[in-house]
Amino acid sequence: MTASAALRVPGTEARAEDPRALVIRGLVKEYRAGQPVLRGIDLVVPGTGLTAIIGPSGTGKSTLIRCINRLVQPSAGEILFRGEDLAKLSGRPLRRARRRIGMVFQEYNLVERLSVMENLLCGRLGYVPVWRAWLRRFPEADIQRAFDLLDAVGLSGFATRRADALSGGQRQRVGIARAIMQEPEIVLADEPTSSLDPKSSVEIMEILSRLAAERGVPVVVNIHNVALAQRFATRIVGMSGGHVVYDGPPDRLSERDLRGIYGGENWLE
């Protein structure tokens, strides 16, 4: 029995027949020859809900997220999304595919000297002519959408504030709104709560969960906090040693499963 099959909950895996699903087959990533970080990942991310990826540091969670949006080039395997293999794209087709993938970063990746509104409008750069972006002359519909999203993430009234004047939680809210400005078909979040205090972490997960539920956009979150994953995810994927070792609903994640993912004892006490 392989490591990927050992702890997987039967019958709970996402269905590849869903046309909105992200299907990963045999994904391998080696930064050094013969030392794979991802060891043949097979995974189907459903076209709805919030999927949380948990596991110890160094097991490949961030690498998996970054392979999906091609910030990292996979060594082998397929990443199938909406009829395309993302692993094989380059040039203009890759740029077009990235427009459909919203990304929320651990360290926010905002332009610190720009206002909140200007940072949100960066999410439309792939959709407007270069001259409009250069002159910051975005369509009125984009500006109104940005105001609506600021309200949705609890930052109405912050449009003109500079990004470097915001708290960590506020910056991450801007990062989420910027990702949604792209009108993505999937959102990836790489450790979006790791730099935040507990209250802000809950608020960020609430926003991501609401995004998935209300806007019908699948969200994939790489997260260290197991309790937050269990509270907000509709599905949990556990990784260990570059393999998927758990794939199922939060309420069936047992102490045995957690020992298989992290090692140790008494996880649920």
Describe, in plain words, how this protein is organized in 3D.
- The structure is a single chain.
- The chain is α/β, with parallel strands linked by helices and 269 residues long.
- The protein has helices at residues 3-6, 61-68, 91-99, 116-121, 130-135, 140-152, 168-181, 198-215, 226-232, 255-262; strands at residues 22-32, 35-45, 50-54, 76-81, 84-85, 101-104, 186-190, 219-222, 235-240, 243-248.
- A 6-stranded mixed beta sheet has the order 6-7-8-3-9-10, sandwiched between helices.
- Helix 6 (140-152) packs across helix 7 (168-181) and helix 7 (168-181) packs parallel to helix 8.
Q: What integer is the average pLDDT? A: 88
Spans where pLDDT lies below 50 across 5 or more residues? 1-13
Give the distance, in angstroms, between the N- and C-terminal Cα atoms.
29 Å
Instruction: Assign the structural class, choosing from mainly alpha, mainly beta, alpha/beta, alpha+beta, or little secondary structure.
Output: alpha/beta
Tell me the strand percentage band. 15-25%
Overall form: globular
Give the strand order of the largest sheet, numbering strands 1, 2, ... along the chain.
Answer: 6-7-8-3-9-10
Largest sheet: 6 strands, mixed
Order of helices and strands: HEEEHEEHEHHHHEHEHEEH
In total, how many beta strands?
Answer: 10
What value does the Rg take, in angstroms? 19 Å
| Number of H- or I-type helical stretches | 10
Instruction: Report the helical percentage.
Output: 25-40%
Domain ABC transporter: 22-266
Organism: Methylobacterium brachiatum
InterPro entries: AAA+_ATPase, ABC_transporter-like_ATP-bd, ABC_transporter-like_CS, ABC_transpr_PhnC, MetN_ABC_transporter-like, P-loop_NTPase
Keywords: ATP-binding, Cell membrane, Membrane, Nucleotide-binding, Translocase, Transport
